[in-house]
Amino acid sequence: MTLRSNIIRAGFDALYFSGAHYLLRPILAGVGVILMLHHVRPARSDPFQPNRHLEVTPEFLRTTLDHVRELGLDIIGVDEMHRRMAAREFSRRFVCFTFDDGYRDNRDFALPVMREHDAPFTVYAAGDFVDGRGQFWWLALEQLVAKAEVIDAPIGDGVRLDAGSPAAKQAAFDRLHPWLRAMPSDEAMMDALRTLGAPHGLSADAAGRDLCMPWDELRDFAADPLVTIGAHTLSHCTLAKASRAVAAHEMAASRKRIEDALQRPVRHFAYPYGDKIAATAREFTLARELGFSTAVTTRPGMLFAENASHLTALPRISLNGHFQDRRFLSVLTSGAATAIWKGFRRVDAA
Length: 350
What we know:
Layout: H1 3-18, H2 20-28, E1 32-37, E2 39-40, E3 55-56, H3 58-70, E4 74-75, H4 78-87, E5 94-101, H5 104-116, E6 121-125, H6 127-131, H7 137-147, E7 150-153, E8 159-162, H8 166-181, H9 186-197, H10 215-222, E9 227-231, H11 244-262, E10 268-270, H12 281-289, E11 294-300, E12 314-318, H13 326-334, H14 336-341
Parallel strand pairs: 1-5, 1-12, 2-3, 4-5, 5-6, 6-9, 10-11, 11-12
Antiparallel strand pairs: 7-8
Helix pairs in contact: 1-13, 2-13, 3-5, 3-13, 7-8, 7-9, 11-12
């Protein structure tokens, strides 16, 4: 676990064991919450798992569902969330479960658990991922660091990164990940990854391509009454780094691609990466102009009545694989942790 994860864990524990999260819940929990997940699958024993934050076990998903039921939250789909937000109907608090990217494990492991609770959920699918030609650069980076003993990276005047142990691999990954994300374009990022992988015989373009449901599987999956499919761009690009025309095309064409394949309307959108680097006020305006009912970010936060005026800039709470503990759920659903993180701002739509 990284230093950052350990600091966050310490903060969660402080809120939990002090009881502060319980006292603050009535003030900070808002009208509802959108939970964000990616993978749901059994735990792995690999000592090096730098993307572990993107996966939870079926058992923890079940624990989460039990927890929100105990809180008395309504588990609703995104269409119903949109209706309540637009109508400002806040008599009952609610939770929406959302899954990004369209992984097969959402069908194989998440769907059976959601069925146990008769819990609707949304999966945001990226067209290129469904087509089997997406670029999972974060997985390519994981594979590179896992295989390498030493990595020569053109950072500054050039650095040689030790990757000879699990701890060294984590440190190397933590150095390379933000460097790649800071690239001026997704194309530049993939070019850099190809350069890094070439000496180790790795193809940055091939990583992860069997992880997502293809169209025939997605079509069957979407037929389940609990499932809503939303759009997640065509290429899973960093929209804020693209021109306005390209960003608009990525958003609109991804919706059309899904609608044509599934023969059903697509009203909801998720911004790839979804943080302030990837989704800005321009993208929020684009989503509204393109007619999406809602669009979700990865900016942390609960939903408040004020969010009804910013339906294409909705925050979510990540179910992070590093924090699969019921007491952390209590802190997260209280709103205390994200309120402190955001300086007690209720809306973050700039």
